[in-house]
Each structure stands twice: as C-alpha cells, then as structure tokens.
C-alpha cells in the first residue's frame, strides 16, 4: 500500500473532513432497446409522449430510434439517482404501449441492417448533424454494434477535495487546471484497475447467434439462438463490441489534459484511408460527417472519458480546453439483467468507493508500454475473466486476478469505511464485501449467473431475456406514477417538442455550410 494513499486516508479520518469525500455529484445514463411483445426489435418511431429526443433533458435516444437513453440529473446521493431513474422508467413504460425494454446489453435478435432504424431528431442542422453522425457509425462499424446497450456512470468530486490533495497533483493552476489534473490522475488509475469492474459487473457472456461478428471468437453453443464464451464476463466490451480498429492507434496513456486534447483532436482531424474510400456524400445525401479517424470526439470508444458541459455552438474538446474537466463518465458497465433499473444500489455504492480509490491512490505517469499492459489486462478480464487461475500483469510481472483483486479490495474498503461515516450514508462496506465474495467464488458474478439462468431455461438467450424483460416491465407498470409526477413529465415532453420546433423554424443556411463550420471548430482550440 502506497504511503501517499495511507497518509490521505489518515488525513480524511483525523481532520473530520471525510464528508468532503461524499460531496461530489453522481448520475446514471441507462440505455435500453425497445422491443415488441414478441421480442423483436421495435421499428416504431420514438413515442410522442416521450417528447423530443433532441431537446428533452432526461429521455433521448442513442444510436437507433429503438435505443432509448434515460439520463438522471446529478445528485450527491446515489439513492436519489436511482429514485430518479426509477421514475423515468415508470414514465417510459407508461408511454410505449405494449412494447418492452430488452434487459440485456447484447441485443435481441436483429433484423437485416437496412431495417434497423437510425435515430431521427428533426430537420434542424443540429438534428441532422446527430443523424448523419449515426449514419457514419453504421457505415464504419455496422448497425448491430450500435444496438448494444450499457450503463454510463457520471462522477465528480467536491472542489474542496482537489484543494486538499493539491500537493500531490501535477498542475499549479487553480481551480480549472488543478481539477483537470486531478481527473486525469483518476483516469490513469482507472485504466490500471478497471479490469476489476469487468470481472465484478460484466453481465454479457452470451448473445444471439445472428449478431454480427460472431466469428471473432471460438464461441460455444447451448441452443440454436445462443452463442457464449464459457469464462467471458462482457462481450459488450470485447472485440465484437466497442473495440474499433480505426481507434487502435489512440493509445490511452494521457498524462495531462493537454495530452488528451491533442490526441483526440488529431484523431478527429486525421484522414483514415478506409473511410475516405467510402466517401462522405453519395447520391445527394451525407453518409458520414467526414472521412477522418473519428467523425466527432464522442466517437472515441473508451471505458472512461473526461467531460465538460458544452455551451451552444461549442464542441466537447473546446469545452474542456476552455473550462477544464468537470466530471468523468464511466462507460464500461453492462446492464445488470437481474435489476429492473439495469443497475443496483450496491453497484453504484461500490463504483463510488472504487472511483474515490482511483482519486486517492498514488497515480504515476503512464508510459506507452503500461498503457498496452492495461489494455491487455482489461481484455483478459473481458474475454476470460472467470478462468481458474487467470493471471494479469502488473509492471510486467504476472499476478493472479484474484490476488490482485483482493489486494485492491482492502484499499477500497478503507474508503467505504469513511463513506459509511458521512452524514446519513450507509451500505458502502456491505457493497465492498459483496464484491469481495465474487473474487472468492466466480459463480457469484453476474456473468456466471446469466449462464446459469440460461441453462435453467433450456439455453435460449432469446427466451430467457424476453421472460426477464417482461417481468421487469410488469414491475414498473404495476407502480404507475402519481398524477402530479406524470403531469410534470408530460409537460417536459411538450416543452421539448416546442423547443425542437423553434430550432427548425429559426433554421437558416445550408446544411453543408453548417457541417463545414462545425468541423472547423475542432481546430479553434
């Protein structure tokens, strides 16, 4: 255990400043495919009662028209986060008729790619940019991959925490530079240890047999509609999921916010020959925003990303450049198929303790070689995390996953102990102990439980997931929202539709000019 981590834990325990650890903000973004009662992908438009996916603050779509994304407002207490997520689910289920939400990260049986509907946001230039970007994703990666769903966990800490830690954070500016350096430090440690999250929370070891890319691994079969890897934890985060060849050269060894901006800006502006061959404009229509390695910053598929709220006509990199990093977005968490919300309170509590560990632990600068080692550890945990005796590498030395995980648990438990003593917070140590048990018994992991549940249902991924999705749908529909709450969300939907209409009415100029101007913004850092 590093002396720096020990001294920091002692500081929070002795100074009575442990409450600062709990003063940051948390939020969840939950994705879910809409399906028909029969279990096939819904090809209906986004329900009118849900409002405009372009301008609604909490209910939108991701890649496909059928891929809902529910966004909670930031809260200090994760209990409030999940209460808000529950309300959103109840409103959505009351608004989509007989449709269900598929409760797995890997999608339901998908129709031919030309049938999968790309999300539509209206006719304004802003809306068309989002739509064309998704056309580009389909061209680059295929529509199937874009129907994979997950959980994004947004996390920030109190500004006071960075002040307390400033003696060990590279960067002398205050507050933006100090805060940004602190979040980059967190991200370095996250990449060192995020394999643990995949082992603990990976819940997608199986998929439908018609999923694109099913020849990448030596899959096993249990039924005609189901493929699986016996010891995998998360196919979603594997080579058939969010791993893109065009992004392989973006080595994740960012040691400063300047490193990150420079690297991502280069990828956004660097021509990529395979995409150039496809072109960006065909038969009078845009098929992708550009032919560069990344169309936009958000195309960068990383397990964690730095974030800053953008202003009108501002790109994400510009926002970070101008105001620093505001929070981080953890993107590697699978949907928990055993939880109606897709994530449990226990999981969110562990994530909070884990991320605070990444903040408080010593975070030396990362080399290219270490970045490769981190990526390899992550891949091994994803593809074979439950293999008996599986080893990872720490500073080029082999170490059993279980041993390293238990070592990390000891440190994370110290933070959980501090959090349990903050105001009315509780349950953090219980959450850590529950994850510790998974390291001692792989059968307790959600990936193992999914395979066991599939076996109990005859091996059909489709039938098993459809049944679970129906159970969760019934859970939400049995608890309709109070009239006042339902009216509030109906009002939000109405306001979002009006906001979209105003954007379209105020639209001027040609879309080609808008794209050209938008792309030029990436150079104006």
TrEMBL record:
One of its GO terms (cellular component) is cytosol. Its EC number is 6.3.2.2. Pathway: Sulfur metabolism; glutathione biosynthesis; glutathione from L-cysteine and L-glutamate: step 1/2. GO terms for molecular function: ATP binding; glutamate-cysteine ligase activity; metal ion binding. Residues 11-379 form the Glutamate--cysteine ligase domain. Gene3D superfamilies: 3.30.590.20. It catalyses: L-cysteine + L-glutamate + ATP = gamma-L-glutamyl-L-cysteine + ADP + phosphate + H(+). One of its GO terms (biological process) is glutathione biosynthetic process. Keywords: ATP-binding, Glutathione biosynthesis, Ligase, Nucleotide-binding. InterPro entries: Gln_synth/guanido_kin_cat_dom, Glu_cys_ligase, Glut_cys_ligase. PANTHER family: GLUTAMATE--CYSTEINE LIGASE (PTHR38761:SF1). NCBIfam families: glu_cys_ligase. Belongs to the glutamate--cysteine ligase type 1 family. Type 1 subfamily. This is Glutamate--cysteine ligase. It comes from Noviherbaspirillum saxi. The gene is gshA.
